[in-house]
Amino acid sequence: MKNVTLFLILFMTGIGVFSQNLIGYNYWEIKKYMIEHHKDMNYNNVTNNRFRYLKYSSSSDSQTLLFFLNTDSVCQSMRLICDQSTIPEKIKEFNSSYSKSGDNRWIDNRNGKNYLIVLREEEWSYIVTIEPDK
């Protein structure tokens, strides 16, 4: 019974994390959004001389969410790294929320701008990136 409960918790936390496109949000807006909408994700303080980003991870470490920031601390792209087990649900979510533009590719049209969402499968995980469509 405990395994079923744990699976349901992991399943539910992995489904909706990426459904909100936060590109264009600044550092403080992202932090506020995450506190209000994703209490299950923990902020990880990271230091990196090459990239400016915010990092969040689930308490089970089954998913990691990165917000890449420009020099003005505004989000330019996002990346979600998840355990392979949630990939069918994530694809179903993207198919219902965005316009399909190829294999494991979708377009999010928000405020008159297009954003490309790409899902790439790895051996133990999958990676979803979202960035302005060029």
Description:
The protein is an alpha+beta fold and 134 residues long. The protein has one domain (2-132). 27% of the residues lie in helices and 40% in strands. It has helices spanning 2-15, 27-37, 87-97, and strands at residues 41-44, 52-58, 63-69, 75-83, 99-102, 105-110, 113-121, 125-132. The chain has an eight-stranded antiparallel sheet with strand order 1-2-3-4-8-7-6-5, covered by helices on one side. A hairpin with a 3-residue loop joins strand 7 and strand 8. The radius of gyration is 15 Å and the shape is globular. The protein starts with a helix and ends with a strand.
- Strand order of the main beta sheet, please? 1-2-3-4-8-7-6-5
pLDDT averaged residue by residue:
86
Distance between the terminal alpha carbons, to the nearest Å?
48 Å
What characterizes the major β-sheet? 8 strands, antiparallel
User: Which structural class should the secondary elements be placed in?
Assistant: alpha+beta
Low-confidence stretches are 1-17
Number of domains: 1
Give the topology, please.
Elements: H1 2-15, H2 27-37, E1 41-44, E2 52-58, E3 63-69, E4 75-83, H3 87-97, E5 99-102, E6 105-110, E7 113-121, E8 125-132
Antiparallel strand pairs: 1-2, 2-3, 3-4, 4-8, 5-6, 6-7, 7-8
